[in-house]
Structures are given as C-alpha cells and as structure tokens.
Amino acid sequence: MRQNAGYTDMAVEFYRHKHVRDDGLIRYYEVDVDGKLSKKLGKPCGKYATLETPAVLSGRTEEYGKVSDALGACLKGYLKDCDKVLAVGLGNPDLTADALGDRVFKRLTVTRHLNDKRYLCALTPNVLGMTGIESYDIISAVADRIKPDAVLVIDALTAAAPSRIASAFQVTDSGITPGSGVENHRRRLDEKSLGFKVVSVGVPLVVYSSTIAREFCSAADGGAGDMIVTPKDVDILVEDCAKIISGAINGVFAVGA
Questions:
Q1: Which of 90, 97, 75 lies closest to 126 in space, CA to CA?
Q2: Which of 52, 83, 151, 253 is the most exposed place for a label (fewest CB within 10 A)?
Q3: What is the DSSP string of 182-243?
Q4: Phi and psi of 22, rounded to 5°?
C-alpha cells in the first residue's frame, strides 16, 4: 500500500491488485476489498476493475473505439441482468476538471421513452452550490420514481500517481462518495443508501500537489491546505475520456446489444 493512499480513489493504488492482463493497448487490473480490508484501509467494500491505456494522453484517437469496447465489456459484467439503468453524471459542469460526468451525460443515447423493458435513462444533478440540493436527494427521488435495476454513476476521480491521470478507467460496484477525492464529502451513493444496485465509472483527472512532490523527491506532507493539480490540457482530456465512456455505455444499451 502506498503512503498517500488516502489521496486516491484508485483501488490499484490503495491495495495490491489481484489480477493483471495486458493486450498491448490496455492493462487490466482487478481488486477485491472485503469487510476486513475495508476496515483496515478505510475504503468501501466491493469489486474494482481498472483499465489503463496510454491512448488518451497520446492522442491516439483511432484507438478510442477499442478502449470503449473494452470498457463496455467490463460494464456488462458489472451490470449483468440489469435491463433498466439510470445513468448519473456527477460533478460541476462549469469546472473543467470536474465536468466528466456532465460531458458523458450529454453524449448518452437515452432509450427509456422508446422501450420500457430495457433502457438507459440519464440525469445530471449538478452540485449543491449551484442547485441548493444534494446530489443524493435528486438521484434518490428519481430512482424511487422510475425503479431502475441499477444506477450507473459517472464522476471524475483523484489519483495518487500523476501517470494515471486520464489513463485509468475504473469501474466498481462499491458505490461512490461525491467530492471525496477533493475532501468535499457529500452523502454516499451506494446500494445501502439508495436501495438500488450502484455501479460507478470514472477517470482520475486531478492529483494532490503533495503526492507529486512525494513521487519525485520523497519530501512532502499533505495537509488541509494541500493544492489540487490538473494538467493544462484538461479540457481536451475530459472531452476525450467522455467520448470513450459514453461510447462504452451507449454500446452496452444499443438496440439489439
């Protein structure tokens, strides 16, 4: 386990991976966190899958389709037997590094109005500071009304390793706490709190300055005043990651899929 594990949402950084496979474009990791480990690590129980690829950072757009297909296959495993899914794009659409959920939401092909047996529907609750309403309250109210088989949450994450920014796509059934990566914890979204299966998918787009310093000179102390750092071309990275994630989700719920 890394010393800076508290500053990451990435399971491959806060606990050793169980399985690795590499097809040349994507490296796959799997991590299982049980109750004992959850208590020890202070991280939620659940299964975590991570797909790492250099495609986005390298701007290899011709490979995005392959990454989307691989991510879609992973999502299918986590959404097995879930025909009715509510997708939720978390984050602040006006803050680029936190706008991943909104950018994915805008690219989703919703089908609930066409088929009430198997569908994808979507919403984006924005943030408390803009609406005055907790994301949890909006999501739980909608979910209680439409009764989906699962809630699929999309959000930007925090990494400990700068190399994972825009390079690692994580899928988990452990749920998600909006804002936890930047120490702005909101009410947790998981099966216990919502009453519906929750699967989340995200990409790290920020890292703490102290973790960067520790990575390169082993002399940094995190604290309440620690700065959060994101790449200068984060706008491009967010758009490209959103294309991959939305492509994966749309592929799973395409007609005849």
A1: 90
A2: 83
A3: GT-----BSHHHHSSEEEEEEEEEEEEHHHHHHHHHS-----TT--EE--TTHHHHHHHHHH
A4: -135, 120
